[in-house]
């Protein structure tokens, strides 16, 4: 175990409860500068919160990859219909 | 880190409402605006429509209706505001009014039913959050598993995840699109993600 790893807390710190509560908003960039500082401080010293953070971040990234694109035929149909409305 | 969409958000009364009437004559300026601001949003609109309806044909109809409606009501769009949020609001309203009736799922989420899951997870989060949270387990999953879990969420929960995680809307923009307070957006999104995690963890346990 590295020095850094041994420094990490496995038991939640007093700040952890607040950190976990606002972590999702932090990931969505919806937290205040003070809340950002709290989360970042906690993530630096607490492996439990860091694990929770990484898990949520990965989940969001996986959901992001589910994006579908508009079928080309549909896109063409819509463009044509709009064009017809524009010219009438 | 900043969200991709940070443009000015129109107030509620600048979104198309049922009482508005379509403009008979659409100006050349509005046509240009529509082509520039709205047509590039076809992919995003289709993605949202598909995740709402979970049916390719319904999604196609919904996207087509949305774009035609947006074109007819283009005069009510306030230039310089968020075109994507405006379009998505039309799409969401069309889904509720015209398509949701067809979908064989409850129109509303039974929040009480999911409350227990959420509360137990939240309590767990404070005490022992390491139990099932393994990034490696998530990373081993293929897209289909995540898609199935997402699709199995009630539509209100699915919607907030799509708007936030896939489309990158802010909580404020989502509140405008969905006609709900920001606090509700936040709590609904957190609940939705917790239920999604629960579903994925159950899947891992079963396989």
Structure overview:
The complex is a heterodimer of chains A (88) and B (207). In chain A, 73% of the residues lie in helices and 0% in strands. Chain A is mostly helical. Chain A has one domain (3-87). In chain A, helix 2 runs parallel beside helix 4. The longest helix of chain A is centred in the middle third of the chain and has 18 residues, at 47-64. The model of chain A is unreliable at 1-9 (pLDDT under 50). Chain B is mainly alpha-helical. Chain B folds into two domains: 12-99, Rna Polymerase Sigma Factor, Chain: A; 111-206, Winged helix-like DNA-binding domain superfamily/Winged helix DNA-binding domain (Arc Repressor Mutant, subunit A, Orthogonal Bundle). In chain B, 65% of the residues lie in helices and 0% in strands. Chain B has ten helices and no strands. Chain B has helices at 28-38, 42-53, 56-72, 83-99, 111-127, 135-140, 143-151, 155-166, 171-178, 182-206. In chain B, helix 2 (42-53) crosses helix 3, helix 3 packs across helix 4 and helix 8 (155-166) packs across helix 10. Chain B is elongated. The model of chain B is unreliable at 1-19 and 116-131 (pLDDT under 50). The interface between A and B is large, with 38 and 50 residues.
């Amino acid at each position: 175990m590295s020095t850094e790893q041994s420094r990490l807390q496995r038991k939640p710190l007093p700040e952890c409860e607040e950190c976990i509560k606002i972590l999702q908003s932090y990931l969505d960039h919806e937290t205040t500068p003070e809340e950002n500082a709290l989360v970042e401080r906690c993530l630096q010293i607490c492996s439990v919160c860091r694990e929770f953070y990484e898990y949520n971040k990965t989940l969001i990234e996986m959901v992001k990859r589910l994006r579908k694109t508009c079928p080309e035929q549909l896109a063409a149909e819509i463009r044509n219909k709009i064009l017809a409305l524009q010219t009438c | 880190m900043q969200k991709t969409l940070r443009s000015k958000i129109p107030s509620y009364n600048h979104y198309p409402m049922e009482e508005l009437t379509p403009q008979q004559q659409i100006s050349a300026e509005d046509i240009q605006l529509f082509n520039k601001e709205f047509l590039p949003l076809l992919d995003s609109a289709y993605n949202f429509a598909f995740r709402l309806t979970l049916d390719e044909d319904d999604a196609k109809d919904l996207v087509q209706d949305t774009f035609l409606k947006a074109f007819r009501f283009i005069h009510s769009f306030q230039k310089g505001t968020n075109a994507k949020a405006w379009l998505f609001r039309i799409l969401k309203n069309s889904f509720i009014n015209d398509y949701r009736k067809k979908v064989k799922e409850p129109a509303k989420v039974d929040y009480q039913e999911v409350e227990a899951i959420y509360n137990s997870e939240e309590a767990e989060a404070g005490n022992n959050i390491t139990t099932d949270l393994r990034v490696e387990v998530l990373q081993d999953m293929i897209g289909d598993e995540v898609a199935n879990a997402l699709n199995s969420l009630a539509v209100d929960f699915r919607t907030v995840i799509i708007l936030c995680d896939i489309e990158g809307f802010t909580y404020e923009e989502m509140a405008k699109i969905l006609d709900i307070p920001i606090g509700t957006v936040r709590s609904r999104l957190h609940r939705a993600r917790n239920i999604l995690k629960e579903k994925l963890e159950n899947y891992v346990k079963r396989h």
